[in-house]
């Protein structure tokens, strides 16, 4: 009788690679790709760490000291934050920044939606192209130049008052940027003009991704242009609207250029905002600690306002 037995392969030595050669090659390529990717990212990370993370860490450190920027510093702990949150002079600047949100964010987004809808209906025409170009023009103009121009326009003898006088409203003319009651809205008007083009172009681009069949179906059902706007356009532009609101709120809370050029925080302190107050405290008042604490508080406020918007957008998207 003959007996056959299965051939027993010897066990591979410890530490040897038992995986398929192709799989091993694929894993090696992935690892190599990861290393190459990090090599490309490292310069950007270095710049981010040098110009964002390091200044932020220094600001946090300075906010815990009383320092004039030159002499020895003194540890005061959280006392600078107490000053920022209790001094009416400093808290007013935070309230001014929140008031600017109405002009820098709410108005540009709402008007941008309306203007983008109108441009969408006239898409392809020369008028629509010219309108988009004119609306986006403020984005390519330096804010310093925009502030200077609007300073002339809103002055006592500026173009705005000339127009009011020409239509019989000369009694209400004034130096708009020098009036205690109207200076902040006037600054807000400049911010609205600057940010309207950004919101309009972004929203107009988003409208190009909406399925035209939705509008056709709505028209067949007898929907008006207003019904289409609220039932189709706005829900379809949720992501673009969140981006517009995020960018414009940050612009309002961190505003500096326009205010510095147009009013310098005046008249009095009617248009003083946190960004300009930080600059004034640090370079003129030599209160580095208080200025740093105000900067940290401003960053926290921006995060508190913006992060819920981002979470809400991700939640609705999913």
Describe the structure.
With 318 residues, this protein is an all-alpha fold. The chain folds into two domains: 25-75, no CATH class; 91-317, Orthogonal Bundle (MetI-like fold), CATH 1.10.3720.10. It is built from 13 helices and two strands; from the N terminus they run αββαααααααααααα. It has helices spanning 21-62, 79-86, 88-121, 126-140, 143-153, 159-166, 183-207, 212-220, 225-236, 238-253, 257-262, 274-283, 288-317, and strands at residues 65-66, 74-75. Residues 1-6 have low confidence and may be disordered.
Q: SS-based structural class?
A: mainly alpha
Number of domains: 2
What string, H for helix and E for strand, traces the elements in order?
A: HEEHHHHHHHHHHHH
Oligomer: single chain
How would you characterize the largest beta sheet?
2 strands, antiparallel
- Quickly count the helices: 13
Unreliable spans are 1-6
**Name of the top-level CATH class of the largest domain:** Mainly Alpha
Shape: flat
Please give the CATH architecture of the largest domain. Orthogonal Bundle
Helix content range of the residues, please? over 70%
The CATH topology of the largest domain turns out to be MetI-like fold
Count the beta strands: 2
CATH superfamily of the largest domain: MetI-like
Widest sheet, order of strands: 1-2
Cα-atom radius of gyration: 29 Å
What is the average per-residue confidence, as pLDDT, rounded to a whole number? 86
Give the percentage of residues in beta strands.
Answer: under 5%
Distance between the termini: 71 Å
